[in-house]
Design goal:
Number of strands: 15
Largest sheet: 9 strands, mixed
Number of helices: 10
Order of helices and strands: EEEHEHEEEEHEHEEHEHHEEEHHH
Strand order of the largest sheet: 5-4-1-8-9-12-13-14-15
Structural class: alpha/beta
Radius of gyration: 17 Å
Helix content: 25-40%
Strand content: 25-35%
Shape: globular
């Protein structure tokens, strides 16, 4: 049985991205792609498990050069999303579903040992809470909450709704990632520090909240923050996925502050180039020395 630092689980997506100037980009993306590249290129022993319709995408080719081992299963449909961005910073967008992947089950995961099960879904229904409980019996559980809040409406539009089972399943989650808007949906709180504290009180052991200015982590004892210092936002897509993968894998090496610093520098560097992170761990360390100089506060 192969051993990995992290097993990233989630559907690939046929992405159609349109920026505020009307420029279009078609690519095979999804949280599993951005997360898989970020973890593997940072030096973590990384496996990816994804699903798609084999007629739609060459999954193995998409992960070429990532350094991750790829495991795959067939789905009746491939996830497909149209993202229309309305501002240069890509903070405002409209997402439309063009296809939804079959739900994931624990039984279909590859027979490997992983220190972390990283659930990188895209829409509600990719996973259910019971899957997190099952994974917690085998390793640490990391969940990006987007896939528990973003729901496909009957007309294909995507709306965000609270996760009704959050208090039942948050206690099984070691690392929980949200952005500022998702944290407010979950908690009703706009203050990110207060939201992180509440999510922790409901059971999540470490809470990471991304914002366009900084990344915040609360571990039950202290709130840590680190500023984003990207010089360009052309690679904004995949920001949260890159940050989270960088944090949870680095967290196995070091403490919260250093893991947060690495993850924030990683995503700052990644956002300067479209697509998943293609650099190296040393590139991130160089970026830290150049633009941060000291550890996160």
């Amino acid at each position: 049985m192969k051993n990995y630092d992290v097993l990233v689980i989630g559907p690939v997506s046929l992405d159609h991205n349109i920026d505020c100037e009307g420029n279009e980009r078609h690519e095979l993306g999804g949280a599993v792609v951005a997360s898989g590249f970020a973890a593997a290129r940072s030096g973590a022993r990384t496996a990816v498990f994804t699903k798609s319709n084999p007629a739609d995408a060459d999954v193995q080719a998409r992960f070429a050069g990532s350094g991750a081992d790829v495991y795959w299963a067939a789905s009746s449909a491939t996830c497909a999303i149209r993202n229309q961005y309305f501002t240069p910073d890509k903070e405002k967008r409209q997402c439309t579903s063009l296809g939804v992947c079959d739900p994931f089950t624990f039984q279909e995961l590859p027979a490997v040992k992983a220190d972390i099960y990283h659930f990188a879904g895209l829409v509600y229904g990719d996973f259910d809470g019971a899957l997190f409980k099952q994974a917690a019996e085998h390793g640490k559980v990391a969940v990006d909450v987007q896939c528990l809040l973003r729901c496909v409406e009957p007309d294909g539009s995507m709306g965000f709704h609270d996760w009704s089972e959050k208090t039942q399943y948050l206690p099984y989650i070691d690392y929980l990632k949200t952005d500022a808007a998702e944290a407010e949906i979950l908690t009703g709180l706009r203050d990110r520090e207060e939201a992180a504290r509440l999510l922790h009180s409901w059971g999540a052991k470490e809470v990471l909240i991304t914002h366009n200015t900084e990344v915040l982590v609360y571990d039950g004892q202290r709130v840590y923050t680190c500023p984003i210092k990207a010089r360009s936002l052309v690679g904004r897509t995949g920001r949260g996925d890159t940050t989270f993968a960088g944090y949870i894998t680095e967290r196995q090496r070091t403490g919260v502050a250093q893991a947060l610093l690495y993850a924030t520098a990683l995503v700052s560097l990644k956002m300067e180039t479209p697509g998943p992170y293609q650099g190296t761990r040393e590139d991130v360390l160089d970026y830290i020395r150049t633009f941060y100089g000291t550890a996160a506060e």
